[in-house]
Amino acid sequence: MSGALISAMLALALGVMVVRRRTVAIALLAAQSLALGAVAIDLASGRSGYVVAAVLLSKAIVLPALLYLLIRRTPETGPVAAAASSIVRLACAGVVALCAVLLVPPLGLGDAHTEHVAVALVLVGIAIVTMRRPILFQLLGLIVAENGLSLLAVSVPGGLSYVIEFGALFDLALIVTVAAAFAQRIHGDLGTGDTELLRGLRD
Amino acid sequence: MTDLVPALAALVPALPLAGLLLALLARTQRQADMAACCTALPTTAAALTLAAIALLHGGRPALHGQWYLIDGASGVLLAVTSVVGLCSTLLSPTYLRTSGRSWSTAARSRSLYYAALFLFWAALLAVPIAGNLAVAWLIVEATTAGSALLVAFSNRRAALEAGWKYLLLTTLGLSIALLGIIVLAIGQANAGHHDLHALDWHALQEAARALPKTPTLIAFVLLLAGLATKIGWAPVHNWLPDAHSEAPAPISALLSAALLPSVLLIAWRVKEILQPSVGAGTTRAVFIAFGLTSILVAIPFLWRSLPWKRLLAYSSLEHMGIIGLGIGFGAPLAIAGVVLHVAGHALAKALGFYATLPLLRIQPRAAIEAPTGVVGDSPATAAAMGVSLVALSGLPPSPLFLSELLILLGGVAGGYPLITAIAAIALALGFLGLLHAFMEGVVGEPAHRRHRRSREERPILALTVILGAAMLACTAAGLLLPGSGFVDTLTRGTL
Questions:
Q1: What is the pLDDT of residue B468?
Q2: Fewer CB under 10 Å: which end of chain A, C or N?
Q3: Closest approach of chain A CAs to the CA of B91, in angstroms?
Q4: Which ipTM score applies to this complex?
């Protein structure tokens, strides 16, 4: 079951790269985080493993809820013009994911599929941040990359220490909260969440 | 004295966290300032005590407990971070008095400013004493949240842009670094080490030879590439000039003097622990590549007519490059230079950023263009800028003159004559660039004929004297470093 869920996580990340509506992108992220939680439950070997899985599942609810509140507070009058068409974006994300499969050597996990998808998620997350102009999508890119890291972490034999899992999640929550505050301020200043307009600092 | 270490290691980051709560409870601006002052003094006292213990113990293997690791390098970073943190806290009311309303009401803004400052300071003090790679990463990640808010504190569009860029790029960089840490954790798990302590600096050092070579090399590259973003090394330095120039001056000082070298310390430790598996040639090459690239990228900007804080930001890029180069050379002379450079750069750069407070009152356009002839407007401000620039350019008796000389000699001793020659030429060009800034900006033809005394002049004059004396003390101490047990221990990488 884990193999299919892991593949689904990558497909959902590609979806975040392509879709235009913010609510749909948040729903895709929530689904990806739920899939991650399900993978964590499947791989959990002890009590701490189940605790980590529960934390990841709660992340799947809390972060999308926070992001949904953010889009309620930052209404867009129209869609932000895309830097590239959805086909181009999908092709770029696909190439990035393919690079992860072809170029990343074994990391020692003994499960090449998980390793490839985890690294691909990190790279696709970075690609989303780079290619999507709306501030919310850049934030979603960060979380997609973080989900890739969590996937690799829960797949470590015996699991990664829950202290690290909790710490990373706490940091992510802090970053998302601060980023949400930024998004509101930037939206208040520009009247839109288009980061293309934030290009005043140059040398 | 070493009996005090566990208590002090817990107390040092705990005190600013207590200050954070006090700041949030403050109802008025005066209460917030008082809370900040009452927190900063004991924090600095505790951190300096711990730093003194670490420095006195520096010639021997590191002190370590379940959660902490304190060596000579920790001592230097603790001393630097506590002194700059204290100065930044005490100068914050001066900044806040003129900053106007920010993200909230004036009183609330001030409370939030101090809360974010103390979160940032606590994390900065915790980084050099964290005994575990993953915990150190978590703390560095935590610095991002607090400092990003501070970068954008003025709420101007440029500050929002700088803060957002800083938040995004450094978080992505740290994600790459975390990927490296997880790859290391996989290696440790395969060797039967599953718990958090498998990522302790000591545990990793002991296990390094047994770790599989290819995944460990990948982990090293990912960690260095990720941390480089936060250190501000070229070519992943894009956030640095913007964040340093848009942040409030006391925060810019902390970013440059404390944050960048603290993250560099983690990178240094990663190099030391993974060197047996990855190979000394590879680890040194990565540091030298980042170091030299940063210096070469920074030099053209030091020649340009830039706003004062932006010039200092590019100077930070150059100096982080010099430190990276010294660590890469790895010879005892270079390591002595690195230790001295961290301390000297912190003091000189902090003074430069603090000088912004009166400068922007005297020449408001210095926020967007290069200052001109400040000495004609304000001799005290000109003195602070001059001392800072002279020290940063590496003119004797600046500690940076001695440290750069040691690093270059270490390069020759380490068997890198060509790279040393390129670095020496680049440093000479950088020196000329800063000298030009000094001639034009500080002692050149003044744009205003009238001396406009500002309230910020008196504290900046006092700081110039104190930090100038501290820099001379660093130069004197630096003369004792080559050949000392302190440097020998750091060179051998004994954690």
A1: 97
A2: N
A3: 25
A4: 0.95
